[in-house]
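1st attempt posting a full record on here, be nice pls
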Amino acid sequence: MIRRLYDWTLSLAAGPRAPAALGSVSFVESSVFPIPPDILLIPMVIARREKAWWYALLCTITSVAGGVLGYLIGMFLFEQVAQPILSFYGKMEKFDEFSAVFNHWGWWFVFIAGLTPFPYKVITIASGVAGLSLPIFIVASIVSRGLRFFIVAGLLYFFGPPIKEFIEKRLGLMFTLFVVLLVGGFILLRFI
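the predicted structure (as tokens):
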């Protein structure tokens, strides 16, 4: 099923409504859809390099908007569904501990999930569940999603089709290493 969904999503990149499809996939990927918008962004930028920056901006805006939807899903479904279950089993205090940790480090959670291959939708929903500050959530989402999509678009703009294979196979690893080094650097500075 995932393969059919992947192939269908990729076929959207060739159609005349590709920008609308890109925005839609980017929006729903941030809250429920399993396929990242990169699979549309990559072939679209290769086909029309002059629109690379527009496509990256479109992905960023729609991804952050979809992230806000995920945030709202977490906020409202938690109160109606999960909270009564946690209370029934006496686990609400554990959730309060989770919320405190999440709110303390929330900017970093959102930033890392927005930049790396980690499913961003998990963090968007968790942000709403934990009650992370919505402005902090939005700023972290704009920074991380913007970086991700503009880096992909920029690499394709400047290096064209030869970089496509690298992006599809290794960019997620490179983003993850970048985030590990960045966070590790901040942790190191804190203890020096």
